[in-house]
Amino acid sequence: MLRCARVFRGAHKKDIVVKRRDFIKTSILGVGAISLASSELLAGQKSRKFKVIMDFDIKYDEPNFEAKLWNPLPFNAEYQKIRFFKFDGNYDEYNINRNNPYDAKTLYTYWKKSDKKKLLHMEMEIETKERVINLKIIEEASKRNFPIPEDVKLFLKPTKHIPTDGKIKEVADKITKGKNDAFEKVKAIYDWVTETTFRDPKVLGCGIGDAGKMVESGYFGGKCTDISSLFVAILRAAGIPAREVFGIRLGKSYFSKALGKSDAKGFANISTWQHCRAEYYIAGAGWIPSDPADITKLELVEKLDYNHPKVKKLREKYLHSWEMNWVGFNWGRDFVLYPKPTQFPLNMLGYPYGEVEDEVLNYYNPKAFSFNFTSQEEL
To answer: Which pTM value belongs to this model?
Structure first.
């Protein structure tokens, strides 16, 4: 029998569903996760709605085992709203927390050592709107050279996988030479990254995102985390706050099947659809969405050259926007989860992270882990 069920609708007490013998605890998913600029063009745009189901049935070679699971949860923002959230399972303990420097929200569940199945079921209803920032407002704010807020300066600092000195700094200085305007630097770095990198299908999952190693080796092939991390590292080295945003694709892209697809009824199995994007900060305009990695994916999947009109169109689009057939979880890099796991600091949290008898589960392999994620878009 499942131990308990918890249901959250938005942030209002009147919407909390209480079931007999259930223990209910209110929790707002990621309120204030992102501060949006007034330049965000969201008003009047048609929204998209997705029902996401995440199921876990943790496996191990031995019948009796202890298990721990940390699963990233989406944040709330103007462009993505978590309208409904419910989870249940036969876990022995749980907590929802964001006890880390990046405010990365997780659902932690724990199963004591036993021969019972380790089950967790999660349901979410997510509403998204296309996220586009007005270029003219970005350019105007950049020229005025406003000071960077203190809380944003965290995203100028180096981490283990995001160095800002050495060869990364050399690359940043070379790309931005003669440019004093922040947004002009961004555009130069974005153009360099999208032209220099390429998608390597042999890389596991989203990649490791070791920007320093990428530059040191001179090998610029990778997946979304690798390419986004390189973009972020060079931006930080150039004095521009930047961060990766880890999340998952939810359904069909209106631009290309390479960037998301679903069946005729809007259904998709998204177990392996984790995707890392990026943001950079222009004082006075706020956090600006970008996605250099999907340029390389479009090129590979559709077999297009960098200068093909369709690639050029996406390059222009993804300098300052996201197509919201995707939901963001967090922007944490090289940080410690709570409660502290066996592996720390954690490189990133775009995938579920689990441990069985202190052995880290392979989150790149949903079948072995095992988990199954699906998404149903409301058409």
So the answer is: 0.90
Cα 229 to Cα 210: distance, rounded to the nearest angstrom? 7
For residues 12 and 6, the answer to whether their CB atoms sit within 8 Å is no
Is there a contact between 55 and 87 (Cβ–Cβ < 8 Å)? no
Q: Are residues 320 and 265 in the same domain?
A: yes
Number of domains observed in the structure of the chain: 2
- Which class for 283: exposed (0-12), middle (13-18), buried (19 or more C-beta within 10 A)? middle
CA distance 63 to 56: 17
Kindly state whether residues 302 and 350 are assigned to the same domain: no
Label residue 269 by pLDDT band (50, 70, 90). very high
Closest CA to 320 of 283, 280, 284, 260: 280
pLDDT reported for residue 5: 58
Residue 302 belongs to domain spanning: 134-326
> In this structure, what CATH number is given to the domain that contains residue 282?
3.10.620.30
> Per-residue confidence at 3, pLDDT binned at 50, 70, 90?
low
- Identify residue 3 by its one-letter amino acid code: R
Nearest-angstrom CA–CA distance, 181 and 197: 24
Give the integer Cα–Cα distance in Å for 113 and 64. Answer: 6
The residues that bridge with 72 in the sheet, in sequence order, are 106
Amino acid at 361: L
For the purposes of burial, counting CB atoms within 10 Å of the CB of 345, is it exposed (0-12), middle (13-18) or buried (19 or more)?
Answer: middle
Phi, psi of 226 (to 5 degrees): -60, -50
